[in-house]
Each structure stands twice: as C-alpha cells, then as structure tokens.
Sequence to fold (257 residues):
Amino acid sequence: MDRQRLVYFVAPVVVTVVAVALWELFCVALAIEPFLLPRPSLVGQTLVGSFQPIMWNASFTLATTLIGFALAVAVGMALGVLIGASVLAYAGLYPLLVAFNSVPKVALVPVLVIWFGTGAVPAVLTAFSAAFLPIAVNVATGLITVEPELKDVLRALGASNLQIIRKIGIPRSLPFFFASLKIAIAFAFVGAVVSETVAADRGIGYMMIAASSRFDVPLVFAGLVVVATMGVVMYAVCVVIEQRYIGWAVRGLNPVT
Fold:
C-alpha cells in the first residue's frame, strides 16, 4: 500500500479517535451527567453490555434498509433512464418527483401504517421513498449531459436512439449513478429509522425511542453509533463497487506538493 492510500485509510481513523477523545475529556472536565451527554466510554460499555438486543434490532434495521435501497436502485435507475431519454417524460415526471421529494418522509409514515399496518413494510417503503430520487436525478443528469454533437455523429452512422442510450448514455451516466448510491444509502437508513420510531415493534429506531422514554441516554447513543457504523460500512461497499466497475472515472488522491 503506497503512502497515498495509507493516508486515505488512516486519516479517518485518526480524526475519529481524536474526536472521541475530545468528547470524553469534555464530559469529564465539565462533569456532564450521563442522561444529558454520556461519555464515549459509557456508550461503549452499553454496546458491550446490551450487545445481543442491539444487534437484534440492528439486523432488522439493516434488512429493511437494504430492501428499500434495492427497490430504490431499481426504480431510480429505470426512472432516470426514462427521464433522461425522453423530453416528454422529463417535462411530465420531473416536477412530480420534485414535489414528492419536498414532502417530509416522516409525514408518509402514518399513511403507510394505515395502508400496511406496523412492522417492516412501512420501514422498507420509507427507506425506498427517501433513496430513489437521488438515483433517478443523477442517472437522468448523466444521460442529459451527453454532447449533442456525439449524438449527431452516431445518428449519422445509423445508430438508433435506443442504441445511443445503451452504448453511450448509460455508460456515461454510471459515474453519476454510483455517486448517487453513496447519498441514497444514507437517506435509506434515515428513512428506515424514522419509520421505526413511529410504526415498528423492533429496530434501532424503536429501541432508541424506548430507551429515551426511560432516560437511558447511553443506549440511545449506542443506537446512533450502530446506525452510523452501518451507514459507513455500506458507503464503503458502494465505493469499492464504484472503483471496481468505473475506476476510470474515479479521481485519485493527489498529494499536495
């Protein structure tokens, strides 16, 4: 591993360790009560002491998030291609997508509960609703930004619109697509956890609400740490896939000289 990659992997670890140490010192120096802001060491003890129930709830959150995210990828990719390839679809659907995105996702949860009841389905659909729009918009942007001159040349060579989309448009939109995945996975976690706080009997969101009702703030922070960790891991997975399939489009880290 060269120096550039070493810095890329070590820097986040160092920053995180320093931030946690400052957090610990801040709580100790000011003698802050755990029910206001627990020390990281206390949060770590809670993670160890309640490991099984935390992991049980985390597995539910992870499952609903991944299902919603997978649906968002499929629907977002299809919508993005449709909007980017058709002026009529762009004019008709884009305003509706913007309007839908303007609706707070927490406001959808009561409606989903009426339709599907409590449990996993509202969490999956909330994760989906939070994640699909970035994918659709980025894929559409990738298709729209194909140079008109390139399209004209391909048409002059006898290529159909479908062939232009398949051979040029979709490959051109892949960097936008993978960039949107890293945003969408975070939104999917937010949507799932928000739904669990309202309409679930398990999951990290449900656990955090139950813990806050009895002022178990260290457990609340433990839930936050678990959600953040799952988000970082899924982000890293998206980065690895991105580098594997479109490494030619990923900008490397250039040392400052």
